[in-house]
Amino acid sequence: MRTTLAANERLPLGGGVTVHFIDVTVESIEASPDGSYPAGSGVTLALVFEGMGAPVRREISLLSEGYESVREAWFVRYRVEVVEVADPTGTPRLVVVAEQVTDRVRPGEPRAVRVERGGEVELGAMRMRFLGHSTKHIDPGESPPLLVAVEYQPPRAEPERFETNVGTEAGPQRWRWHDYLFTIEAHAFDAWMQLSIARLELEPVRR
Question: How does the average pLDDT of the chain come out, rounded?
Fold first, then answer.
């Protein structure tokens, strides 16, 4: 479902979260003298997500052939794709597709992956690096929780580092990122993990 978003218009995504756009710029790219990249053009802008702490800015670029565009941005469980920028030099309007992650697993078998500490897992155009395990202080008689530290590398963006409490071995040790669901099937503390990686279905955000 496509939605047209005007300047200064905030699109509600759910849970008090909104998105709007700023800083629309039309670019002209000169070809390199050595021919390593061609002449081109494009539109860049920023999507700003609000509603959970400080506003979060995500860069978007729609570039001509020969260059890598970044059309989508994620914020927690929401995905926004910019399909088109209408009238970018006048009164810009964005045509977007906004979706949210559900609890439904996509059809098909989950992917099985073993990753060593310091190793990486490919996630489509993105990568996840396993940085290590840790735990935290507990009271006598309690089961220690497992904390997983990872770093995600989205395309053409700064790495995002997270430390997630995935619970104890008494239940499934899982965490989510974007539309990925990670389940730890086995692990050696701070050494390696055997993961089951599933994708979760998306559904449109309705206005």
Answer: 91
